[in-house]
From TrEMBL:
GO MF term list: ATP binding; ligase activity, forming carbon-nitrogen bonds; zinc ion binding
Pfam families: QueC
GO BP term (any one): tRNA queuosine(34) biosynthetic process
Enzyme class: ligase
Name of the gene this protein is made from: queC
Ligase recorded as keyword: yes
Protein name: 7-cyano-7-deazaguanine synthase
Length: 240
């Protein structure tokens, strides 16, 4: 048990997707030591977790100063999440909108569970800052991605663990085009190309065809958002 919280360390929720990779770069530009945490919970797109090593290798090659700051990478298995969920992310069913206005890719409680486990790990590791890619600007409407949810959870975690964690969501108010632009600002064309080619977003786990925005089915909500953001970013990039 580490009773001392280090203000210069961070733990990033790192799934191997575009958003979490951008958040990892954001953390590496701000903190002296950065650890990573991914989850396996029976998700259909578990292939995203296999992308993490290639992304980390690319980041290390891109920026030696970032390589020196990278700490341990953790993976936690929480199969119970899929056992109590009936969603298109954890079942082989078509992706569609539900009667409640949410896509059936919504896994109830997922981000609440992720951040609670992350805070528990951070508690043990002596880490104060926990970073996630939640966003309520350009997203599928998930209620656990909202800023109010994250702020409320931060209060609950600090009360329940008697610590002073800070939950950071650097993408919260960015649309997907701005997320690509942030990656460009943090790591230049090298980071953008790394994320485009080696990160994974597609809910169906499709990595057959390489589009200009990366791999994916091109039709699920995650691919649609990523492709739309890429087109807007690329257009802005050409104009500037």
């Amino acid at each position: 048990m580490n009773d001392q919280i280090n203000p210069d360390t961070a733990l990033v929720l790192f799934s191997g997707g575009q958003d979490s990779t951008t958040c990892l770069a954001w953390a590496l530009s701000r903190f002296a030591r950065v650890e990573m945490l991914g989850f396996t919970y029976g998700q259909r797109h578990a292939i995203e977790l296999e992308c993490r090593d290639r992304l980390l290798d690319g980041i290390k090659a891109l920026r030696p100063d970032w390589a020196a700051r990278l700490g341990d990478s953790h993976t936690l298995a929480i199969p119970t999440l899929s056992e109590i969920s009936d969603t298109a992310l954890t079942r082989d069913v078509a992706i569609e909108m539900g009667a409640d206005g949410l896509p059936n890719t919504f896994v109830p409680g997922r981000n609440l569970v992720f951040l609670t486990f992350a805070a528990a790990l951070a508690y043990r590791r002596g880490i104060r800052h926990v970073i996630g890619g939640m966003c309520e600007t350009d997203y599928s409407g998930y209620p656990d991605c909202r800023n109010d949810t994250i702020k409320a959870l931060q209060s609950a975690l600090n009360l329940g663990m008697a610590k002073n964690f800070e939950l950071h969501t650097p993408l919260m108010w960015l649309d997907k085009a701005a997320t690509w632009r942030l990656a460009d600002e943090l790591g230049g064309a090298g980071l953008v190309d790394l994320i485009r080619e080696h990160s994974h977003t597609c809910y169906l786990g499709e990595r057959g065809a390489l589009h200009d925005w990366g791999y994916g089915c091109g039709e699920c909500p995650a691919c649609t958002l990523r492709a739309k953001g890429w087109r807007e970013y690329a257009a802005q990039h050409v104009n500037h």
